[in-house]
Structures are given as structure tokens and as C-alpha cells.
Design a protein that fits this description.
- The complex is a heterotrimer.
- Chain A is an alpha/beta fold.
- Chain A folds into two domains: 132 residues, no CATH class; 110 residues, no CATH class.
- Chain A has ten helices and five strands.
- Chain A has a five-stranded mixed sheet with strand order 2-1-3-4-5.
- The N and C termini of chain C lie far apart (42 Å).
- The chains are: A alpha/beta, B alpha/beta, C alpha/beta.
- Chains in contact: A-B, A-C, B-C.
Chain lengths: 276, 656, 149
């Protein structure tokens, strides 16, 4: 509650001094433990701001809304550490100018919501470096454990079952801060690389391609997983990709605004044990 | 509607013996869009090609597939036939049913089935082929040669003698580079300056060569045929057009004890100086860091001494902007700093010197007028020890590679010394004698047999001073014994390394370099003088250690590449290049980073009122080489590669 | 006894090295299994993961991707980029239950006609042992049956 009050005051300060044109934060959602995004332009709206451990969505994706930043005015945003990493990636991929972003950093990993020191993305580089050094403990998720124990046929059957429910609503894409393309590859029909009907085959292709496009870019915010209306555990796929690029290329997504995209760069000594 | 002609070649028996061509032709004839499906014994023959052309004309074909040998054999042949029949040559595809089918399979049914798949997938591809036109790039017929050593001079002269304009840029006040520093040259022992200075003068006086000395290339933009270059003309504080090179200023200059770089510190020079007596141009420069006037605002002795008022302390650096069509990089090398080799005592004992310093001692124009004298006491050394590979082939402290010239120049040094100091003794520690080259092995044999150089195979572990002598401890591995030699002088065959700013300079020009900073050739074997960037060529030791003949040969090779480029007003290139979709490009610049040729640029898109709408990736077809790495990277599918488009590949795979 | 299973294998190769290596296998009259269909691309850098998925959709039981050895790429480093993509893509397929045994990668130079022939034989044998990719084929069949309400 202390952090929430502190940040409400800060938001008002920034609005009053015209330092930001808007602050993107959270407000009460439809149920007691749900939060929804809030776009603060006035003091009244600032009073609606909520900051507690239920504020889990990554709001970074709203920043790349067409036209939002083109007037070069600043925008404030509430972000957890992974959200700050998203800002770094978006900056590295030239989707935004990080100087326009005022960050209200917070961490919900403890019981109390903790404010993070700093306001510009680069202020948090020490924090992100420490996250890279100490990657989170391997998930103790029982389902992931089960997947890891399966042989390939069983895994295929598992995912086939999961993907068969996919209705190609693309909520995963819409929720993802990294899916900023003006035209997604799935919307490209000359040629139609991905079958768009809701057959399982096309669902497989869609989810494979999305995971591949997120390799080295996903920060594990969980937006896609929560958005999925049929509860496909997408987080596991993206986490597997993050683990792969970390182990193979020492790449931890979003460490800096100048980080090279892992799949547009290479090292002559990259591992190639799998190549015949 | 597609009207595809399919021509199935028997290749005598080569294909027909393993592929049932009649069955193949019949089956393919049923394939949607196929207008003509015929077989023939040799389609590559004249009547074969004629029949293809006739079929194209008679049926108004929209594309053809030749099911025959590898496209690497006859793609060009059949494309030409297409063009002759009025069909765009890029509407022809080859189904490889010989090298990759009939020649490698024994079962006729399976081979026939495979041939059908191969042919069908090429039919599906060719249906999506686009008419392509060779890319034409205008060429500015003026070459920039960077570096005025022997390689740069040779390249400049070759290009200029062929009638094309050259701008030759040298960083130092004079042309000449390292070759001007050498005494005699192996394997003929002709005097280096005697063969070098006429070349320098020729380059300076050539009507087609614009010589810019004491100048540095600061910025390069553009691409093959169309480079824009910015050159900084460093101020000499001497008006180059007025100065007659009389040298009065140099005799009057009160600062006289600056170690002369040209003599590797063995001689002295003044603050206003020319690097050496035969400098081209023979115009002095003022070394700002040593000049008294620039230090405390008083002196101007040189200015007062100049009778024609050529000296002006207010001259500023100037910039020249140039357009050139090709660039030859001949920036040369430097000698490795031997400071890391404490055991050899370089820097500690004045008579431990580098090979290049020995060259200056042996040179008639050097600080000792060609006498081999010790720097410490001016005496003639009676015993000289040469240490080869003092830095080369030494992964722990030096460089891993062989510097290539040291075996030869060390043998030369031993010879020159024995010619100049009768009765003098030479010992050479070596790892291997690498004397591959015309007349080279004979030369080293002569050093051993006629000039009595004593070669000791082994390394030196320590050099120290004792009773006025340099004690050299090493091992003679052929005898298996340690040896200690009392010497009067020790000469280190130091490694050749890239110029200190080689990597930064490569970034300015936009070429690739290796781990050391040597510039990378486009292909080590087949394109050894082209850099990775089209239109930029390499000459001399900036690419790898080289001796004079190799540098000259590479310079002439570069010149011939430049001349080939200049032989036409427009450059024609294969149209297999990428292009972006500016509407869908998200501007993430992954492609810009992934492109091996820096061929993708950022392009601003403005609306009618001139407001920046967005920035998108844009491929420069002059630079793109058509690998397609960008296409695969692009998440939004906003780049495509002509000749191998997404639609074509999709259709080809779906046709299998 | 039933007929031995003949796997369908689709290969994506670069034109400068592996395609030339395959040609060399031909000019050397080496014999290898007829199960492979080759798609020629300018460079491994051009080989998109989408191609592999489409090959599977066309009923391939195995996919082979091959190009120039590291350092030999005609385009200097297309194969280095490709190698990273393959590493990631392979791990992704594995996690989703598409066995790495079915998607193979190799370096074959223009001089390695022998290696090409040997590789095609061994890959064909390996895939033959794995059997048809029935799980994927089931997905393909689903797309081919008319929709019912």
C-alpha cells in the first residue's frame, strides 16, 4: 500500500509538471483478484491506480500502439522486471525510444509490493544483470515435469491434444508485447505458410512459428498463457526457447537497449554437435 | 493461365537408361498447366535447343522446365535459348534428373518416380517465376587507391595506365610505404629505393593519378560503382603549390633531435621535415607535437628562412569529397611491438634491434650511410645473431601465423652483413626455413653456402649483457645441445601485424576482417583480391603477410578487377536480389544486422506534407548478393528474394 | 512378408556446397537410396523453418537440411545464421514431440560427393527404422476430410 500511494503521488507530480502525457498502470478488475490496465491522464484517474501482488500483466505492449509515442512526448508505465526487459527489447528492435518511457518499477516476488529504484530503462540494468546471473529455479510445475518425462511420441500426443483446442483467436499474439508486426506471418496468404483453418495441423504450425519468433525475445511475462481462452500452457514452450538460447548462446532476453537479436547474430564458435 | 513446356532429355542413354522418359513425358503431360511435354535425345544440342525455341513460340509458353542434367551444367544454355525465343530467361527452370537421379539410382521404377516428383515440383516453381531483368548499376569510372606503398602505387599505375582516373591517398607525408625503407631486396639484392623511387615519381607525375599525401579517408558511403568518399587533407603548414622543396627550413629548424620514424628511431629529424631524402612529394610537413611554435607560440624560424613564403601556420585541415566507382585498399602492415619479449632484451640493450632497423642500417640512405654499426658505441659488430619467428608462429605471446617474409629477409640480412663486414660471423636461430618462391630456396642456400651463415635450428631463451657482449642462450635442436653465443648485435625477425587502426578502418570502408585485423577476401581461393564488399578490392599486406612480388601481383590483380568493372558504363548483375515490402515492414532491423553485405539500409517514409511516417528496411540491389538470410529472419515475411521467392519455394515443396 | 517401408525424405540444400556435392555424387556414379527429393536454395541462410513444416505437411517422414561447412559459405556467413536457427528450431520441435531423429542437419561441401551418398543412405535407413511419421500424417488426414457439423 505504501508503494501504491508513493507512485500515485509521483504520477500526479509528473502529470502536473507535464513531464508525461499519460501513465499506463492498473486498476481494479472485474473480480477481487483481477486487475485491468488503466490509462491515466488526470488526477482523478490517478486515484484509481492500484498496485498490489495481483498486478501481473505485462503492460509494455500498450506502448507500441500505433501513434502513441510519435509525438515524442513521454509516457509513464508500471512494469515488473520482466516488463522492463520488454522495454529493452522493444528499444533494441527500434520499436520505441526508451527516453520517452518513464518506468514505475515494482516487484511482486515478495509478499509486499516493492518499488524498484530508477525511472529510465537503463537505470535497471544492474537489476536485470543480476536476474541473468541467477535465473529462476527450475519450474516445479507438476505438468512441466510430466512433459519432460514423456518420450517424443507421448509429447506429440500431449501437444496435439492441447493444440486441438486452439481456436486460432490469436489472443496470445494480441497479448504479447513482442508481437508488434503490422502484418503477422499468419495473415500473409501469398503464400499461406500457416494453415488458418482450426485444424490441429495449422494450430501446430501457428504455435511452432510463434514460439520460434519469440526465441530470444520472450521475457516470460505470461501474458499469452493467461490470454489463451482454452488454457494451452504456452508458457512452457516459450520458457523452453528461453532456456535454449540461454544455454546455447548465453542470451538472456532484454538485458540492454543495444542487445543484438539472437537469431540475427551469430558466433563462429556456436555449438554444432547436432550437425552431421 | 500458365502454359508450361516440359522438355525431357534422354542425355543419350545417361538418363533414358534409368528413367523411363516416355512414361515420364506422358505423366507430366497430364499435370495441370502443362501445355507441352516432350522427350528428345539431346536437348542441349543445336536441334534440341531449336525445338525448345520453336515450342516456346508455337505455343506461347509462359515458362519451361528442362528435365535434364544439373542446372550447374546447362541452366545458362537454356536461359539463353529462352531469351532467343522471346521468353524471359528467368522463366526457365531445370529439373535435375541426371546427376541427382539417373546416375545415382539403379531401380528404374523408383528413379522414374523420383524424376516425376522432381519435374513436377519444378513445374510448380516455374509457374510462380517472375520475369526478371538484369540489374543495371551506373559506374563512376574513377578509382580510389588507399595506401601509397608498393601495392597501392602498383594498383594506381596499372589503373591509370589503362586510361582510368585514380585518386591515390597516402596517410604519411610521402609515398613509399615500407618498401622505401628497405635496403636491398631478396632474392636479387637489387636496391629497394632504386626500383621504388622511379615508381613513386611516375605515380606522382601521372596525368591520370591525383595524388593526395598526408591525407586520410574518413568516411565511405555508397556501393559498387557509386562510392562517396570524404578525405581529410591534414595540414602540412606548408603550401604544397608554392614550396620548391629547397630544404632551407629543415636546416634552420632548431628542433633537431626527434627520432626519425622512417629510420625506425635510429636517426634524427627536425620538427619540419620530409620523411626521407627522396620523398614524393618533396614537400616538408611540420610535426605539430614537436614544433616550438605550436608549443609556446614563439619561433617561426622556418617561416623566416623560407624565401618564397610557403610556410603558413594558419593552414587548416581540409576536406575533399569524391565520387569513385571502385576502391583498392592497400593499407599495408606494421612491425609487431617486441616489448612483450623481455627475454630478448629489446628496448633494454640498444644493440638488440628489429629486422626493419637492420634494413635502415644496411641502407645507403640510412642513418649510417649503409655501414652496419652498433647504436651503442658506433663500432662494427663482429658477430651478429638473428632470431627468426620473434613473434610469428607463437600463439602464447605473438601471433599464430607465419609472417612469411622473415626467413627470406633474415637470409638477406646475413648476406648483406657478410658483404659489408668481411670476416664477420652470423648465426641464425630458426624454426623452419620457409623459402618457397621463385629463386628463394637458392637464395637461402647461397646465404649458407657462400656467405657462411650458420643456421641453428632452435629457439632462443635469453639474451643478456656480459662484459660488453650480448650473450645469446638458445638451443640447437639438431645437435640436441644448448648453446651460448657471444654477439655484438642481435636482430629480431619481428612479426608482421595489421596496422593498429586496421579494424576501425575496415568499419569505415565496410569490409570484413579476421581475428587479427587482416582484411578478409571474398573467397580465399577463388576471389582472393575482392573484399567481402562488392567494388572494394584488396592489395598487399593489409590482407595477409606478403612479400614485394606477392604484393605487386595482388595489386595488379586488383587493378584488373577495377578495370573490368570500369569496362562498361553500367554494371550488369544477376537479378537474384532481395526486396522489402515497405507496407508490412515493422522496422526491427534484424535484417540489417543479419545481412553479410551491409546491403540493407533504413529508409524514411514521408507523407505528402513531408512528415516522417515510418522507417523501413530497404535493400540496395547494388550491394545485395542474394543469399536470402534476411528473408528467413524476417518475422513478418516482409522481404523476399527474386528467383527464390516464398511463393516459388512454397509451390516447389507443395509440388513434391 | 510385407514390403519394406519406403520413407519420403525432403532435403533443403544450398546451391554452392551441398547441391554441388550431390551433383558430384552423380558424376562419380555413386549409388544411394532414391528416397530423397532435393529443394535447391541459394544459401542455408535462405532455408526457413517454414520450409521444414511444409515438407512435413507434404508427408515427409524425414527432413534433411544441408549446406557449406562453417567458414566455407559462399555468402561468408549465411550458414552461421542458419546454424543458430537450426539449434533453436530443433529444440523447439523436440519439445513439441517432433523427434530430432526426423529432422537432420549436415555440412556437405561441393567436394564431398561420397559423404552426400553415405548420408542419404544412412538417413534413409534411420528414418526407415523409425517408421512412417504416422502422428503427423494423422494431422494431415484431418485437414483432408471434409468438415462436419
Amino acid at each position: 500500500m505504501i508503494t501504491q500511494e508513493k507512485y500515485r503521488t509521483r504520477v500526479k507530480e509528473l502529470l502536473a509538471s507535464n513531464s508525461v502525457k499519460m501513465v499506463i498502470g492498473y486498476k481494479q478488475g472485474s473480480t477481487a483478484d483481477r486487475r485491468r490496465p488503466l490509462f491515466v491522464r488526470s488526477f482523478e484517474e490517478a486515484d484509481e491506480l492500484v498496485l498490489d501482488s495481483n498486478c501481473i500483466g505485462n503492460l509494455a505492449g500498450y506502448l507500441v500502439t500505433e501513434g502513441l509515442l510519435s509525438d515524442e512526448k513521454r509516457v509513464g508505465i508500471f512494469l515488473r522486471p520482466e516488463g522492463i526487459r520488454s522495454i529493452n527489447i522493444l528499444a533494441a528492435e527500434s520499436q520505441l525510444n526508451p527516453e520517452q518511457i518513464i518506468i514505475f518499477g515494482f516487484d511482486t516476488s515478495g509478499r509486499e509490493v516493492k518499488a524498484l529504484q530508477g525511472e529510465q530503462a537503463e537505470d535497471f540494468s544492474g537489476l536485470i544483470d543480476s536476474l541473468k546471473e541467477k535465473p529462476p529455479e527450475k519450474s516445479s510445475d507438476a505438468l512441466l515435469y510430466r512433459i519432460d518425462q514423456m518420450n517424443t511420441e507421448e509429447r506429440f500426443a500431449f501437444w496435439k491434444d492441447e493444440f486441438s483446442r486452439c481456436i486460432k483467436c490469436y489472443a496470445c499474439r494480441q497479448a504479447c508485447p513482442m508481437c508488434y508486426c503490422r502484418r503477422c506471418i499468419v495473415d500473409s496468404n501469398q503464400p499461406q505458410w500457416i494453415n488458418t483453418s482450426s485444424h490441429t495441423l495449422g494450430n501446430f504450425e501457428w504455435n511452432i512459428v510463434r514460439a520460434f519468433h519469440l526465441a530470444g525475445r520472450c521475457v516470460g511475462c505470461g501474458n499469452c498463457d493467461r490470454a489463451c481462452p482454452v488454457n494451452i500452457p504456452l508458457r512452457f514452450i516459450n520458457a523452453r526457447m528461453a532456456q535454449e538460447v540461454f544455454e546455447s548462446f548465453d542470451h538472456y532476453a532484454g538485458t540492454s537497449q543495444t542487445q543484438e537479436p539472437v537469431l540475427a547474430s551469430f558466433n563462429k564458435d556456436d555449438s554444432e554437435t547436432f550437425i552431421l | 493461365m500458365a502454359k508450361i513446356g516440359v522438355f525431357i532429355c534422354h542425355c543419350g542413354e545417361n538418363i533414358a537408361s534409368k528413367v523411363d522418359c516416355t512414361k515420364l513425358a506422358a505423366a507430366i503431360g497430364e499435370h495441370p498447366g502443362v501445355e507441352v511435354s516432350v522427350e528428345y535425345k539431346y536437348f542441349c544440342s543445336d536441334p534440341g535447343q531449336e525445338s525448345v525455341k520453336k515450342a516456346i513460340r508455337d505455343n506461347n509458353l509462359t515458362g519451361i522446365v528442362i528435365a535434364a542434367c544439373s542446372p550447374r551444367m546447362h541452366e545458362a544454355t537454356f536461359r539463353k535459348a529462352c531469351a532467343e525465343a522471346g521468353l524471359n530467361p528467368y522463366l526457365c527452370e531445370i529439373a535435375n534428373i541426371r546427376e541427382q537421379c539417373s546416375w545415382v539410382h539403379t531401380d528404374k521404377d523408383m528413379a522414374t518416380e523420383k524424376a516425376m516428383d522432381i519435374t513436377r515440383s519444378m513445374i510448380e516453381k516455374v509457374k510462380r517465376n517472375n520475369k526478371l531483368q538484369p540489374i543495371e548499376v551506373p559506374v563512376t569510372r574513377r578509382a580510389l587507391v588507399i595506401g601509397g606503398g608498393i601495392a597501392g602505387i602498383q594498383a594506381a599505375l596499372d589503373i591509370a595506365n589503362a586510361g582510368q582516373e585514380v585518386v591515390l591517398v597516402e596517410r604519411e607525408p610521402s609515398l613509399g610505404g615500407h618498401m622505401a625503407q628497405l635496403s636491398e631486396t631478396f632474392p636479387t639484392l637489387d636496391c629497394s629505393q632504386c626500383i621504388m623511387t622511379p615508381r613513386m615519381v611516375e605515380a606522382a607525375q601521372h596525368p591520370k593519378i591525383r595524388l593526395l599525401t598526408y591525407a586520410e579517408v574518413e568516411h565511405v558511403d555508397g556501393y559498387i560503382g557509386n562510392f562517396k568518399v570524404r578525405i581529410r587533407m591534414k595540414s602540412r603548414y606548408v603550401d604544397i603549390d608554392t614550396c620548391t622543396g629547397c630544404g632551407d627550413c629543415m636546416t634552420k629548424c632548431p628542433v633537431k633531435k626527434i627520432p626519425n620514424e622512417f629510420d625506425c628511431g635510429l636517426g634524427k629529424r627536425t620538427a619540419i621535415y620530409t620523411p626521407f631524402a627522396q620523398s614524393v612529394p618533396n614537400i616538408p610537413v611540420i610535426d605539430k607535437t614537436s614544433c616550438i611554435y605550436f608549443k609556446n607560440g614563439k619561433c617561426k624560424t622556418c617561416m623566416k628562412s623560407c624565401q618564397i613564403n610557403a610556410i603558413n601556420f594558419d593552414i587548416k585541415d581540409e576536406f575533399i569529397e569524391l565520387e569513385v566507382g571502385a576502391i583498392v585498399v592497400a593499407t599495408g602492415f606494421q612491425v609487431q611491438n617486441t616489448a612483450g619479449y623481455g627475454e630478448y632484451g629489446y628496448g633494454k640493450y640498444p644493440d638488440v634491434i628489429t629486422g626493419l632497423q637492420f634494413e635502415r642500417l644496411a641502407s645507403a640512405s640510412g642513418p649510417t650511410a649503409g655501414k652496419i654499426l652498433r647504436s651503442s658505441d658506433g663500432k662494427v659488430p663482429e658477430t651478429v645473431v638473428f632470431i627468426q619467428c620473434a613473434g610469428s608462429r607463437d600463439p602464447s605471446k605473438g601471433v599464430r601465423y607465419c609472417s612469411k617474409i622473415c626467413c627470406m629477409y633474415t637470409a638477406k640480412h646475413a648476406m648483406l652483413y657478410s658483404h659489408k663486414v668481411h670476416g664477420g660471423k652470423t648465426h641464425i636461430f630458426y624454426m623452419d626455413i620457409r623459402a618457397a618462391g621463385k629463386g628463394y630456396d637458392e637464395f637461402t642456400r647461397r646465404a649458407i653456402e657462400e656467405d657462411e651463415a650458420s643456421y641453428l635450428r632452435g629457439r632462443v631463451s635469453k639474451v643478456w649483457e656480459e662484459n660488453g657482449k650480448l650473450m645469446v642462450r638458445g638451443v640447437d635442436t639438431l645437435l640436441g645441445k644448448p648453446v651460448v653465443i657471444e654477439a655484438d648485435m642481435v636482430v629480431l625477425a619481428t612479426a608482421m601485424v595489421p596496422q593498429p587502426n586496421a579494424k576501425e578502418f575496415a568499419k569505415i570502408i565496410g569490409i570484413a576482417y579476421d581475428e587479427y585485423g587482416y582484411y578478409n577476401e571474398a573467397h580465399l581461393k577463388l576471389r582472393p583480391v575482392e573484399s567481402s564488399t562488392a567494388g572494394v578490392f584488396l592489395a598487399g599486406a593489409c590482407q595477409s603477410p606478403k612479400d614485394i612480388p606477392d604484393s605487386v601481383a595482388q595489386a595488379s590483380a586488383s587493378a584488373s578487377k577495377v578495370l573490368a568493372l570500369f569496362s562498361k558504363e553500367k554494371l550488369e548483375r544477376e537479378p537474384v536480389v532481395a526486396a522489402t515490402n515497405e507496407i508490412t515492414c515493422a522496422g526491427c532491423w534484424g535484417c540489417v544486422l543479419a545481412c553479410p553485405y551491409n546491403a540493407i539500409e533504413k529508409k524514411d517514409i514521408f507523407d505528402r506534407s513531408g512528415r516522417l511516417v515510418k522507417r523501413v528496411a530497404s535493400v540496395n540491389p547494388g550491394l545485395c548478393q542474394g543469399c536470402g538470410t534476411c528473408v528467413t529472419f524476417c518475422r513478418s515475411n516482409s522481404i523476399d528474394l527474386a528467383g527464390f521467392t516464398e511463393k516459388q519455394i512454397f509451390a516447389e515443396v507443395m509440388g513434391l | 512378408m510385407s514390403e519394406p517401408f519406403e520413407p519420403k525424405i525432403i532435403a533443403f540444400v544450398c546451391t554452392y556446397c551441398t547441391y554441388a556435392g550431390a551433383d558430384l555424387a552423380g558424376t562419380s556414379r555413386l549409388k544411394y537410396a532414391p528416397n530423397v527429393r532435393i529443394v535447391r536454395l541459394p544459401c542455408t541462410g535462405r532455408i526457413s523453418p517454414m520450409f521444414l513444416l511444409k515438407a512435413l505437411q507434404k508427408g515427409a517422414d524425414g527432413v534433411l537440411v544441408s549446406g557449406c561447412h562453417p567458414g566455407d559459405c559462399h555468402f561468408t556467413h549465411g550458414n552461421y545464421h542458419a546454424r543458430r536457427r537450426w539449434m533453436v528450431f530443433r529444440s523447439l520441435l523436440d519439445f513439441l514431440g517432433i523427434s530430432p531423429e526426423r529432422v537432420k542437419f549436415s555440412w556437405i561441401s561441393a567436394a564431398e560427393g561420397g559423404k552426400f551418398a553415405d548420408l542419404i543412405n544412412s538417413v534413409t535407413e534411420d528414418i526407415r527404422k523409425l517408421g512412417p511419421f504416422d502422428q503427423y500424417k494423422e494431422l494431415i488426414r484431418e485437414t483432408e476430410t471434409p468438415a462436419t457439423l
